[in-house]
Amino acid sequence: MQLLQLKNNTIKSLASQYGDQESEQFFYMLSEAYLGFSKIDIALNPNEFIAKEKEELIALTLVRLKNNEPIQYIIGDTYFYGNTFVVNEHTLIPRPETEELVDWVLKDTPNKPIDILDIGTGSGCIAISLSQKLIKATVYAMDISEGALQTAKINAENIKVNVKFIEQDVLKESKLFKDFDIIVSNPPYVRCSEKQAMSANVLDYEPDSALFVSDTDPLIFYYKIAELFLAQAKKTAVLYFEINEYLGAELIEGLKKIGFTSVEIRQDFRGKDRMLKASI
Q: How does the average pLDDT of the chain come out, rounded?
């Protein structure tokens, strides 16, 4: 089969579920990963012959896509803040909103010897991105999941940064193991009642423990991290969160009640309250 025909067949196969535009984007991603052809290569070489085994490989991925499996898990990686990150069933797929959180931290932070802690690191995308740009900083990354940490370590090795990984459940900690200048976290923040509004590819494949919190205590991770932050001796430190767009006002009020004097929320590129910065 020729490359252009394979492209057209792929789009036709997926269009009823994903639409033409997203189906076309899926083909470009699969072509890059499995055929070695970029979008430009496809445009320049539409008549390139594709071997039968490659056609069959693409066909198998289409079955997985039709079962709502995220293409990032199928391919095994995704792009975040200028780097390619390995992702799998142990990690969330990094989102563009989280790139904005990283960008906020970087724009606020001079490149000098400081200590940074990323809590709930998952794939390591936040910690690794910060470590790569703030080369004088010492960056630590914490997660409860051994599988996530193993994935994050692979990403740190691939991107060639030195991040110190720690397997701990933040909810069980009474104090941090050292004082930090910056603590950043994208903790679980989706209430169980919000599941009905989420797509099947998220619900069926991404790890529940990294996504969901109970409706009765949806800010549990934020208040625990804030408590640990306030208990450390370094009072000039800064705290950054990715947040649930519906709980921003409640979180601001709660943080001010426990001692934070400066709290700022920023919206993401979709205009949703998504990031919070707090200090004392």
A: 96
Positive or negative CA dihedral for 130, 135, 139, 145?
positive
- CA 124 to mean position of chain CA atoms: 8
Provide the pLDDT confidence category of residue 51 given band limits of 50, 70 and 90. very high
Which residues are CB-contacts of 66 (< 8 A; sequence separation ≥ 6)? 13, 14, 17
Find where tokens 């370094």 sit. Answer: 234
Using alpha carbons, select from 185, 186, 187, 167 the residue that is nearest to residue 177: 167
Give mean pLDDT, residues 195-205: 90
Alpha-carbon distance of 143 to 210, in angstroms, equals 10
Distance CA 85, CA 48 (A): 30
Phi first, then psi: give them for residue 41, nearest 5 degrees.
-60, -40
The pLDDT value recorded for residue 138 is 98
Confidence of residue 197 (pLDDT cuts 50, 70, 90): confident
